[in-house]
Amino acid sequence: MLNFGIIGAGGISRSFCGALRETDGAQTVAVAAKDRKRAEKFAKEQGIPRAYGSYEELLADKSVDIVYIGNTTNYHYGCIKLALAAGKHVLCEKAMVETEERAAECFETAGTKGLFLMEAMWSRFLPKSLKVREWIRKGRIGNIVSMQATIGNNVPKDPNNRFYSPELGGGAMYDLGVYPIDLLTWYADKKITDFRARVTYASTGIDETVSLDLDLEGIPANAMITFNAPMPEDIFIYGEKGVIRVPRAHWGGDAILLDPSMKEIDRFSQPEQFGMKFEAAEAVKCIRAGRLTSEIASPEMTIFSARMYDRILRG
């Protein structure tokens, strides 16, 4: 049984605890928050045996094998370093870190210490994502001609929330942009070799809307990301022989195959579910096999995404 410790007692950590209850060979044994009372309340709600008022206390718990980091983005890098120094495997919520340099450093440290590290990009593990890759590899739509993605919603313009606060690692790229970048490259099995970005910034300084024109080894793709409007959150993959539509690409349970006339000819469908249990299962599988990284949510995925953040947000 792999024992998880949870860093951060917010909503995303609550969802992850629910996912662990559906994951064979894993259980949650401890949670830590900067406010002990908050950690204790979380532990009581989730049936977790131990609660700590500091991250260091949790990392000193010898029963904890792996840490799930579910606090805000600005804390991820420091928590990863602390966890690795304490000899713990790490599964860190996206965006894992804010810069390429930090991403590369974290994976290098984990490798040196013989510890598993993975960014929690759960959308890559969804069964429908695997089906989309299968359709493409089997030539169901022929050669890919272009790709398109949208993701967005109306986010309250509150400078104190994690979305609009630069201090908390806010911004549309960190929160939403990671999905189209990591899914488009995963579906097509191609790297982004060039891109152009247009960014609109909020008064707080965070990126509010980002339009990306991407080149995936010769395949043109576009991604629109925003905090300012609801978007369908669909991905379209256009091929010479048909089209794949992935509704709610980072979340839902469907993938749809269309012929050249846009008539549906095949559909993968399962009940919509939060994909965290699939990423948790991957972490368990990799650690049991003695692997330090995942082939699906690979270090290259995380490092490249962080490189994109650097170039888009910091020039």
Describe the structure.
- The protein has 315 residues and is of the alpha/beta class.
- Helices cover 35% and strands 27% of the residues.
- The chain has helices at 11-20, 36-46, 55-59, 73-85, 100-113, 127-137, 172-188, 276-288, 299-314; strands spanning 2-7, 26-32, 50-52, 66-69, 89-93, 117-120, 144-152, 194-201, 207-216, 219-226, 235-239, 243-246, 254-258, 264-269.
- An eight-stranded mixed β-sheet has the order 8-9-10-7-11-12-13-14, covered by helices on one side. A six-stranded parallel β-sheet has the order 3-2-1-4-5-6, with helices on both faces.
- A hairpin with a 2-residue loop joins strand 9 and strand 10.
List the helices and strands and how they pair.
Elements: E1 2-7, H1 11-20, E2 26-32, H2 36-46, E3 50-52, H3 55-59, E4 66-69, H4 73-85, E5 89-93, H5 100-113, E6 117-120, H6 127-137, E7 144-152, H7 172-188, E8 194-201, E9 207-216, E10 219-226, E11 235-239, E12 243-246, E13 254-258, E14 264-269, H8 276-288, H9 299-314
Parallel strand pairs: 1-2, 1-4, 2-3, 4-5, 5-6, 7-10
Antiparallel strand pairs: 7-11, 8-9, 9-10, 11-12, 12-13, 13-14
Helix pairs in contact: 1-8, 4-5, 5-9, 6-7, 7-9
Overall structural class, as computed from helix and strand content, comes to alpha/beta
Please mark out the parts with pLDDT under 50 across 5 or more consecutive residues, or reply none. Answer: none
Q: Distance N terminus to C terminus? A: 45 Å
* CATH fold description of the largest domain: Dihydrodipicolinate Reductase, domain 2
Sheet with the most strands?
A: 8 strands, mixed
Tell me the fraction of residues in β-strands, as a range. Answer: 25-35%
**What is the arithmetic mean of pLDDT?**
96
- Helix content range: 25-40%
How many strands appear in the DSSP assignment?
A: 14
Instruction: Count the DSSP helices.
Output: 9
For this structure, the quaternary state is single chain
Any idea what the CATH superfamily of the largest domain is called? Answer: Dihydrodipicolinate Reductase, domain 2
Number of domains: 2
Shape: globular
CATH architect. name of the largest domain: 2-Layer Sandwich
- The run of helices and strands is EHEHEHEHEHEHEHEEEEEEEHH
What is the level 1 CATH name of the largest domain? Alpha Beta
Widest sheet, order of strands? 8-9-10-7-11-12-13-14
